[in-house]
Amino acid sequence: MIKIGCPSFGTDCGRSGIGSYFRELLDRFEKTPYAENYSFELIGPKKDRDYYLEGKKNISWYQVENADNSPMQNFFWNQFKLPKICRERGYDLLFLPAANRRICGWAPCPSIGTVHDLATLHLKNKYDFSHAVFNRNMLPFLTRRLDSIITVSQFSKDDIIKFAQVPPERVTVIPLAADSNRFFPGKDRKVIKDRMREKFSISKPYILYISRLEHPGKNHVNLIKAFNLFREETSTAYQLVLPGPDRERSDEIHAVAQTSPFSQDIKFLGFIDNADVADLYRGAELFVLPSFFEGFGLPVLEAMACGTPVITSDAASLPEVSGPHTPHFDPSSCEQIKKAMMQVLENTETREWLSAQSLAWAGLYSWEKTVEQTMVIFDNALKQNKKGK
What percent of the chain clears pLDDT 70, i.e. is strictly above it? Predict the structure, then answer.
């Protein structure tokens, strides 16, 4: 039995795209055929065990608390304590699912990390000083120390090759996917909209953007300004629905919304349960992802899989992930965002065509493919390690 250690630090206990990625992998690692040949062990605190391992019998847990309380603490834990745990627990392989956030420079077994993006090298003021120093000075060096690197888009692979100076053959693109068991078109949109009205007080047709409230990177401010322009020109009273927890400089986002002439129709839902995400997509007239930077942009595929029309910014990986059929816009232009909204919402034929194209596009991706390709990387690393001994 091959034993693989999987630290959960940096995955936000499931409350982020990286957390969704880790959960989807663990859900499948736990099942046949992988559970027959591999023994996976989650390394992390009790709260992560309770979230990621609920209902799972084939994945063990090694408890580590208070290793992630500060940037300095998690850095030293990953460099010194984690390698010691790998040796003591007898891991044949170390898998770091959030290697762009938590990464070690050496391990006594092969190490594979998923580097989702190098956003900090593109977005100024995204992180505080200590995080910025680590990401700009240490992250490229530590990334080069991994035996194999997984990333989620060609855009991110190009970044890793450029900034971390990693040979292309050591970086493999394995895309994410929308879980087909959760994200699919609703049978009765009226029932879904009624449920959204009862639970979230969404009383009008709505435009949706699901993301943590982080300014300026996630670009809520320009979306709100574009929504103002859209409402001034349209005859339909749409709402703008913005689920997601408050993060860096979220007060600036709320302030812009409060000064909007349509502030009563801008709804902040805060953090939402996974059970509500799919119906929020299904009930929306349009999903918008206006971000200045995404390593992948998983909500794009989730919305598409629900049959919801999507428009995105033309930044970073988003054109690659959203496909050639999707309308794109300059995220710094409120006017372009507004025009893309009107292009879809003011034309029924365009909306129906886009919905059909999006469903087909989302169907090209699956978590089963993602896991299969990930296991190939694991197996290759193990084989290389045997040859080297």
Answer: 96
Place of tokens 């009624």: 194
Token digits of residue 171: 């970086």
Most distant CA atoms of the chain, gap in Å: 71
CB 7 within 8 A of CB 43: yes
Interval 160-168 mean pLDDT: 95
Neighbouring C-alpha atoms within 13 Å toward the C-beta of 241: 27
Query: In sequence order, what are the residues at sequence separation of 6 or more whose Cβ sits closer than 8 angstroms to the Cβ of residue 198?
Result: none
Beta strands at 59-63 and 93-96: parallel, antiparallel or unpaired: unpaired
Closest among 74, 94, 14, 10 to 274, alpha carbons compared: 14
List, for residues 233-273, the tens digit of each pLDDT value.
Answer: 998 899 999 999 999 899 999 999 999 999 999 999 999 98
State the burial class of residue 149 (Cβ atoms within 10 Å of its Cβ: 0-12, 13-18, 19+): buried
Residues 375, 357: Cα–Cα separation, whole Å: 30
Q: Which amino acid is at 317?
A: S
- Residue 194 CB contacts under 8 Å (≥ 6 apart), including other chains: none
Task: Classify residue 81 by its DSSP letter.
Answer: I
Gap between the Cα atoms of 11 and 364, Å rounded = 26
> Which pairing describes strands 2-7 and 93-96: parallel, antiparallel, or unpaired?
parallel
The 10s digit of each residue's pLDDT in 20-30 is 999 999 999 99
32-71 residue pLDDT tens = 899 999 999 999 999 999 999 999 999 999 999 999 888 8
Domains in the chain, CATH or no CATH each: 2-177+366-384 (3.40.50.2000), 189-362 (3.40.50.2000)
Residue 299 has pLDDT above 80, yes or no: yes
The rounded distance, in Å, linking the Cα atoms of 79 and 380 is 24
Return the pLDDT at 31: 92
Measured CA to CA, the distance from residue 305 to residue 240 in angstroms comes to: 21
User: Percentage of the chain with pLDDT > 90?
Assistant: 87
Cβ-contact 191, 355 below 8 angstroms: no
Cβ-contact 317, 295 below 8 angstroms = yes
